[in-house]
Amino acid sequence: MAARRSPAPARTQRLLTLPAALSALAAATGLLCGSALLSPAMAQTASPAPSSNTASATSTGDPALHAQIETRAKAAEARLIAWRRDIHQHPELGNYETRTAKLVADHLRKLGMDVKTGVAKTGVVGLLKGGKPGPVVALRADMDALPVKERVDVPFASKAKGKYLGKEVDVMHACGHDTHVAILMATAEVLAGMKDQLPGTVKFIFQPAEESPADIEPDGTNIWGAKQMVAEGVLENPKVDAIFGLHVSSGIESGKLAWRSGPAMAAADQFWIDVKGRQTHGARPWGGIDPIVVSSQIVMGLQTIQSRQVNAMLEPSVITVGTIHGGNRMNIVPEKVEMMGTIRTYDEGMKKDIHARMKRTTESIAASTGAEATFRVVELYNATVNQPALTEKMAPTLKRVAGDGNWMLAPKATASEDFSFYQEKVPGLFFNLGVTPKGTDVTKAPSNHSPEFYVDEPALIHGVRALSNLTVDYMTMAQR
Ligand SMILES: [Zn+2]
Ligand SMILES: [Zn+2]
Known about the structure:
The structure is a single chain. This protein is an alpha+beta fold. The chain folds into two domains: 30-265 and 384-478, Aminopeptidase (3-Layer(aba) Sandwich); 267-381, Alpha-Beta Plaits (2-Layer Sandwich), CATH 3.30.70. The protein has twelve helices and 18 strands. The chain has helices spanning 9-15, 18-28, 40-45, 63-89, 98-110, 177-193, 225-231, 291-309, 348-369, 388-402, 420-423, 460-479; strands at 114-119, 123-129, 132-142, 161-164, 167-170, 199-207, 242-253, 257-259, 262-265, 267-276, 280-281, 318-326, 332-333, 336-345, 372-381, 384-386, 407-409, 428-436. The protein has an eight-stranded mixed beta sheet, sandwiched between helices. The longest helix is centred in the first third of the chain and has 27 residues, at 63-89. It is elongated and about 80 Å long. It binds zinc ion (2 copies). One zinc ion is lined by residues 33-34, 175, 177, 210, 247. One zinc ion binds at residues 33-34, 175, 177, 210, 247.
């Protein structure tokens, strides 16, 4: 792996501007979950037709259970916010979430659940058996933070440091996973409080390393996060019938819910390109082969794949070169250049086709100059696909919880989520919760992964209400 080692964040920052460095860092971590769940501009155009946003609060489920959820969620709200602030102030990178995991495990044990710890390194799984027989519903929260230095002016702002692939970095919950943990802890409290009346079992999954691990580098052979939890049997014993999860988003107004059926978030792949030229004096480039110029041609060539080669009407796709490193002096043509980037797709066939075209483009451009180039790709996360049948079945619940005018059809996002690994095994629904304060222009709000990412805390209770209601409605509907 040494030859293909990801460039360290420090090097990245030296070569790029700060925003570019942050995106490169995010690219290096493999994905951008949440950040573009809704790009703000898209969110604005994504309002549903008025007819679809009014009538649909149906009588799905059991009104007595719904009423209990409301009361219990309200009662838990102050603790929900306190947990969120505590976790926010103590963020931990992927696979290092030991403090967070302990907080979660202690809480679940206090609620009387069977608790498993150390799942996929630091994951925690709690099992709540309802008083009546019924299906098994899994609810998932991711626990990890990002290598970002917080710039939000709140008393509980993070000053934490962590280790990212061996280097010390600042750490921040810039993707809002602190809120996911707090929301699921409060949901556990709500549902545990009404356990005797629950017709089914709830599996609470607190997952590490959604953003990719900070202790190992993805190399195509190792696994982490959701994939590892699934491999360790998190969806078995008891077997999960359906899974729900949420992500907070800066692109939506506080408290609003958004979702879509089918492919909702993109598959994310990471690629590496090494270009080998021949070193020479910068004043006499004809004496060597300049890998910097070749790399520039490759970067431009890759951009013609989406724009000129694949069917633009099938599905969108993105190829981003996030890092480019080569040379150490103005008058030396260097020996080699290393590049790294990400690919986002929604269609499996199109993904494989793009990989083949990228390899051909890279190698052919290099060969045309006498240089040598290698292309290597690792498939990190598959597309997040909300099962249409489950989405249709549960949409009335989300609409009722959100209320008229407070939900919307989410556009496809080019961000990725390893929630997809659960959805490959069991029907799953992943939705978004808006956290940008009302009155703020969502098109200008700092996005997830930004050092200024801000969460409007009154939104969080709606996450608890949504997850709790999805759980009881799914169980109630299974009784019929
Ligand atoms: Zn995220
Ligand atoms: Zn993220």
